Amino acid sequence: MSFAPKKSLGQNFLLNKNIINKIVELGHVSSESVVIEIGPGTGNLTKEILKKNPKKFIAIEKDKNLFINLKKKFNNNIELINQDVLKIKWDKFSENKIIVFGNLPYNISAKLLIDLIGLSNLNLLFKKFIFMFQKEVADRIVANVNSSKYGRLTILTNWKMSTKKIMDIEPENFYPKPKVKSSLVYFEPKNKFFNFSNSKNLEKVTDIFFQNKRKMIKKPLNILFKKSSIIIDKLDLNEKSRPQNLSPELFFKISKEYEKEINLN
Ligand code: SAM
Question: Which of 124, 182, 181, 131 is nearest to 157 (CA)?
């Protein structure tokens, strides 16, 4: 490799051909597909996706040097955007049902996912995401209620997406070798989900609950509601529960009640 990978940009390039092929397979890309790849890096995955001849291929790479190399390598076969993916205005894409691939830089992966989930047209804009995360983040996304990994990321994702962990991937499959394991996660947007007037309200409610995940839920309820006892009765909550005992649906209902409360004041 003719350049030094940048740690600050989470540059761990995937080298294992079998895993790259597995990722491409999950996409079911055809000549009708519109594809976005986040962080194409040196183009290892890009090259294989392109073999499926998608109708359109857009790649978003923040690193200027990698961007220049990719431009040389792929000419006009892909539309390259040299930008921070966190600053992308997703609404500018007029296409529907885009397939998104990303071996994501670890430092932005959770933030990116939450931003995408917050988009009001998520289920129209995207068909699926095939994302690689740090294993610890992937485990939080797919966690079950009552488990130690269950939390904000589980609930926010579950709100609008169905998820499946495909496999864990050992550090040896990347260059340079990351310190931690990775996992591949498959996402599909749900067509039916709770409607909030502002998705930030669900983010806020889950944030307040999980700041103290070992404490009983009475405390966060008191922070959010003037009369928490009314909410406890209405939603039939057990005051002695801890945040990780409440299902995603209960968090959606609590957030709905919170929206009513702030609209009243
Ligand atoms: N897709 C390549 C692969 O699998 O070998 C590279 C994956 S590497 C884990 C992450 C890539 O995302 C790097 O190319 C890095 O430069 C790029 N990147 C990091 N932060 C980014 C950001 N905020 N926006 C867009 N790309 C970013």
Answer: 131
Task: Among 17, 61, 104, 129, say which to mutate for ligand 1: greatest number of ligand atoms within 8 Å of CB.
Answer: 61
**By alpha-carbon position, which residue is closest to atom 23 of ligand 1?**
84
- The CA-CA-CA angle for residues 217, 221, 223, to 5°, reads 125
CA of 255 to the centre of ligand 1 (A): 34
For the record, the structure tokens of 1 come out as: 């490799």
Instruction: Answer yes or no: is the C-beta of 182 below 6 A from any ligand 1 atom.
Output: no
- Grouping H, G, I as helix, E, B as strand and the rest as coil, residue 35 is strand
What are φ and ψ of residue 219, in 5° steps? -65, -55
Ligand 1 touching residue 40 (CB < 6 A): yes
Q: How many residues does the chain have?
A: 265
Domains defined for the chain, CATH in brackets: 7-189 (3.40.50.150), 199-264 (1.10.8.100)
pLDDT in tens, the chain (265 residues): 457 899 999 999 999 999 999 999 999 999 999 999 999 999 999 999 999 999 999 999 999 999 999 999 998 899 999 999 999 999 899 889 999 999 999 999 999 999 999 999 999 999 999 999 999 999 999 999 999 999 999 999 999 999 999 999 999 999 999 999 999 999 999 999 999 999 999 999 999 999 988 899 999 999 999 999 999 999 999 999 999 999 999 999 999 999 999 987 6
What predicted TM-score, i.e. pTM, was given to this entire model?
0.95
39 lines ligand 1 (CB under 6 A): yes
